[in-house]
Amino acid sequence: MATRVREQTGSRHESLGLSGDDLLAMYRTMVMARLCDEAQFRLNRQGKAPFVVPVSGHEGCQVGTAWAYQKGKDLFVPYYRDMAVCLTAGLTARDVFLGVFGKRDDPSSGGRQMPAHWSSRALGIMTGSSPIATQVPHAAGAAYAFQYRGEDGVVGCWFGDGATSEGDWHEGLNFAGIHKLPVVWYCENNKYAISVPLSKQMAVKNVAERASAYGFEGVIVEGNDVLACYEASRRAVDKARNGGGPTLVELKTYRFHPHTSDDDDRTYRSREEVEEAKRNDSLILFADELKRLGLLDDERIERIRTELKAEVDAEVEAAWNAPDPPPESGLLHVFAEPAERGGEQ
Ligand SMILES: Cc1ncc(C[n+]2csc(CCOP(=O)(O)OP(=O)(O)O)c2C)c(N)n1
């Protein structure tokens, strides 16, 4: 019986072109995201991190989908919950905590944005702003640029279910559908927009159903199944790269913590509901899958966690001791520099 499962699961990743090393690298990225999340909440409670945005619960769908992109060529357009998308794109734990502490060398904004407003020109992570769904027309525009220039890059754009109620979301998807743009839309559907449940966001059952209104395919994926997320993403990215236009991928998932460190989720969801969702944690499900493949055992899981935890602790320390932005740089990138205004004073 166990062998049969092993064979079935083995062929699953091999048929997707993933090696055992790929699976272990994906697992380590997920664990890294979880440990960064635990650390940032500890720092918040210690008064060292004023505001943090949790990723826990979303690691599987983020790593699974982002793994399908070509670094250095494609563009990542994440939203605030996408720490694991950004770690997959190449951001490091050090970068995460430089942002959490608002330090000078924070790659996202040099400490000027709120934490979790991810960005890195070098890694192809496009900056976003706080109003929900504003990254969606940006992603459509970037995909239009790829198409206009005759380049074969693909844009991946991630957002929550709440974002799909915004005008920007509909405008971006509509434009992408009309021009058959090389973009993949990922909805991380965790059933809530802060306290607002899905039933108050839309009158249809699935976000993916909305894709038909824009003339492209919508698919629903079990978001805690990492390889299912990878498979759907791989297909959609390949299709976009080959001129087949956009896809809307809905990832059914759940966030384990409150919306942010400033939210109290006990006011809108029961503890039983949260505990039930944790039993479907992508980290546990993926570790079980890797155990069946003979790639992991309990001892190795513990060793990976201990090793990555030590790395996270060291990076927190280094980021905490890193230089702050110089006060005189406070208005940099807020107003045009005199030279940018054609020498006007
Ligand atoms: C235009 C706009 N309206 C409201 C807010 C306040 N706000 C911040 S996050 C959020 C919830 C978004 O939920 P969702 O898109 O489902 O993502 P999730 O946080 O659940 O991952 C809201 C309403 C905002 N930032 N921008």
Q: How does this model look, in words?
A:
With 345 residues, the chain is of the alpha/beta class. The protein has a single domain, classed as Rossmann fold (3-Layer(aba) Sandwich). The chain has helices at 2-15, 20-45, 59-66, 83-89, 93-100, 135-148, 167-178, 226-241, 271-278, 282-292, 298-320, and strands at 75-77, 155-160, 183-189, 192-193, 196-197, 217-222, 247-252. The strands form 2 sheets. A 5-stranded parallel sheet has the order 1-2-3-7-6, sandwiched between helices. A two-stranded antiparallel sheet has the order 4-5. α8 links the parallel β6 (217-222) and β7. Thiamine diphosphate (TPP) binds next to β2 and β4.
Provide a short characterization of the protein structure.
The chain has eleven helices and seven strands.
Domain unit count: 1
Strand order in the sheet with the most strands: 1-2-3-7-6
Bound compounds, each kind once, are: thiamine diphosphate
Number of helices: 11
**Average pLDDT score:** 94
* SSE pattern: HHHEHHHEHEEEEHEHHH
Rg over alpha carbons: 20 Å
| Low-pLDDT stretches | 1-9
Helix content: 40-55%
> What is the SS-derived class?
alpha/beta
Strand count, sense and barrel status of the largest sheet are:
5 strands, parallel
Features:
alpha/beta, two-stranded antiparallel sheet, 11 helices, 7 strands
Strand and helix map with partners:
Blueprint: H1 2-15, H2 20-45, H3 59-66, E1 75-77, H4 83-89, H5 93-100, H6 135-148, E2 155-160, H7 167-178, E3 183-189, E4 192-193, E5 196-197, E6 217-222, H8 226-241, E7 247-252, H9 271-278, H10 282-292, H11 298-320
Parallel strand pairs: 1-2, 2-3, 3-7, 6-7
Antiparallel strand pairs: 4-5
The protein binds thiamine diphosphate.
